[in-house]
Amino acid sequence: MHFLRFPVSVSLLALFCGFGCQVTPAQDWPQWRGPAGDNHADPNIDVPLRWDITTGENILWKTKIPGYGHSTPIVVNESIFLTTADEIEGTQSVLKLDRQDGRLRDQWVMHRGTLPERIHSKNSHASPSPAFDGERIFVSFHTDDAIWLTALATDGRQQWRKKVSEFKPERFQFGYGASPIVEGNLVIVAAEYDASASGLYAFDTQTGTQVWRVQRPSNLNFASPIAATIAGQRQILLAGAAMICSYDPGTGKELWSVDTTTDAICGTVVWDDRRVVVSGGNPDSGTWCVSADGTRKLLWDNRIKCYEQSLLAVPNYVFAVADNGVAFCWRTLDGKQMWQKRLFGGGISASPTLVQDRIYVASERGMVYVLAASPDRFDLLSENSIGDSIFATPVAIDNRLLIRTTFNEDGKQQQYLVAIGD
Residue 303 domain-assigned? Predict the structure, then answer.
């Protein structure tokens, strides 16, 4: 019997409740990494183990996406929202799709003619995911040499727009990737680069007024902040600049920090009870686990690099798929390696998603691998092809798996959002 097959519903339901979800119900997917910030699907839903894009088996719908981007969709009320960019038109936009049938309902251009001149070849001009507070959608874009945050009603009406900060990296022009998150009545945005404006910013969700700002090191970093309740304390977690930090959500005051990790982190930290884990790889490669109870201890580390993708934590264990395509499971208590197994030949940007007792892992080559979420042994349950490249993290909602994927059509890249379900 798989380790999580029987207790998964009870364990994950306890996690959802303990993490203090915001006003949106658990059956929605309101922001990056879902309602609890852990990339766990609601334990009451299920999605197929196998599908076939060629025959249409378990493919509910496939919607062509105008433009290109790496952002993960959010699913709220009756709609799906995601961001996209068109380099030819020079636009950055928000798309609205029907939650049930996937039809493209609307497209709202946020910025035009102000795309950055250079970004990393594996980045996009629409990489941050939207966030939702129950009334407003928040989207952030790197454009016009700054990070801009816009609040929209669900019908596309602009509520407010704020310039978060200048964003003019000098050493590396790799672009931007941090997603905004909603915590209480605040929307929190990381804008970290090699200048004095580098910081973590919090804005009032209703008015856009800046509530607090945390000075961050002058260092290019790509990680998204995340909110969690650990050791009985609500906190904002962010890794990068050779440290892992915790901040008070209401004031931005530092609760604790541990000097570890490396300069640039792309992945979002994950947690288990009193421990926080993150992985990264520029310039130093590694995975680090620290205490989250204020004792400021590095508990364990290794040299495994998961650079763009985040890890996936369950009670007492953390799963990872490294840049070279090798999957791992470690015990969070002491870092003991439970197993490792090669899945593919490298190339991963999407983060693994937990659905009941299974982990869905999407590769940059358009393959989705389904693993048992078991620390006892490696168990590959299925392999499914869906397109030619996947950079966005799959979302599990409504007994469906939503995957933003790219097909090479007539020598051009065409993105689709695909819904997989029975």
Answer: no
